[in-house]
Amino acid sequence: MRHLFLVIILISLNIVAFAQTPTPKNIKEEMKRVADWQIEHFDQCYSNPKNPHHPLAWHNGALYVGMVKWAAMADDNSYWEWMKNIGEKYNWQLHERKYHADDHTVGQMYIELYRKYGDKEMITPTIKQFDYIMYHPAQSKLNWKTPYNQDRWSWCDALFMSPPVWAKLYKVTSEKKYLQFMMDEFKATTDFLFDKKESLYYRDESYIGELDHGTKIFWGRGNGWVFAGLANILEELDPSTKEYKYFLKIYKKMAKRLIEIQTPQGHWAMSLLGQEFYPTPETSGSSFFTFGLAWGINNGILDAETYKDPVMKAWNAMVSYITDDGMLGYVQPVGAAPGKAWPDKTEVYGTGAFLSAGSEVYKLVGGK
Length: 368
Description:
InterPro entries: 6-hairpin_glycosidase_sf (IPR008928), 6hp_glycosidase-like_sf (IPR012341), Glyco_hydro_88 (IPR010905), PolySaccharide_Degr_Enz (IPR052043). The chain is an all-alpha fold and 368 residues long. The chain has a single domain, classed as Glycosyltransferase (Alpha/alpha barrel). The chain contains 14 helices and 4 strands. The protein has helices spanning 2-19, 24-40, 58-71, 78-89, 107-117, 124-135, 158-161, 163-173, 176-193, 220-234, 242-261, 283-298, 304-320, 348-364; strands at 194-195, 200-201, 211-212, 215-216. The strands form 2 sheets. Strands 1-2 form a two-stranded antiparallel sheet. A two-stranded antiparallel ribbon has the order 3-4. A hairpin with a 4-residue loop joins β1 (194-195) and β2 (200-201). α3 (58-71) runs parallel beside α5 (107-117) and α12 (283-298) packs parallel to α14. It is globular, with a radius of gyration of 20 Å. Residues 1-19 have low confidence and may be disordered.
């Protein structure tokens, strides 16, 4: 009887373990639900309904980064067409501010559409603007209170927004000038904001030396921006180059730290070192971490034995925060620091992060 009881327990544990490993089919179903819900509600803003985001603003630019990854695996050309229509409507222009990294984000979508359709018009305005920036580089300092500091990458979010555009442009044009500019600016920001002891980035200079409940302040989504940006940059570079090795070193340091500070529930706290003070789930930063870690395993950079379980745990947590109608909940509103999130509030960049995560978790569990 005792033997039979142990067998039942072991079977039950195996069933639970199996249930926690999603199938490629399950992952695509969840991604489709979230993508379709977001497109249906695209003109709405859940942080501030009275002020919806411009289609070219960074909020939507981050959505498109994930939507491109979903479109590539969706077996449905309508997602590509949806993004293509946006580009055509705005004549393939970047957003308003010439130097500001946020307003470059949509360029990532343009370059992916160019790769699919081969129409040079899709990237010509980006090339023209980036050439101007290179030949008229911003002279401002990275210090947060100096004038025009955001004409450079003076806050960590910027490392997701603009550098991957430069890396992609380098890849599609073979013009090394784009890579060199990106390297110089990325290094400057990293030297300024990266905490070598914690292997995490401060959001900007104003958080360096500040404490929250006695812990250093490393914003969850801020570091999510960086980590996802690193994966998207590495994807464009030749692994044999010194540039690739530079980014890889930072990526590995962050990856190691991230699995050390993952919450028992599977997400990451809004203040990465302050789990007990920020127990509320947050799905945008956590989805970016999930994407970056899964990408590393899939590309043979991270050891699956060490990193796969944290990725699966994180993905299952993200899926558990999707509402019945397909909305990804617990996305922290627009901000610059740890804050609050709610189960019934979302944001487009959270959807983009989730779709990015799904695209790599799908491969990790055998999806083709």
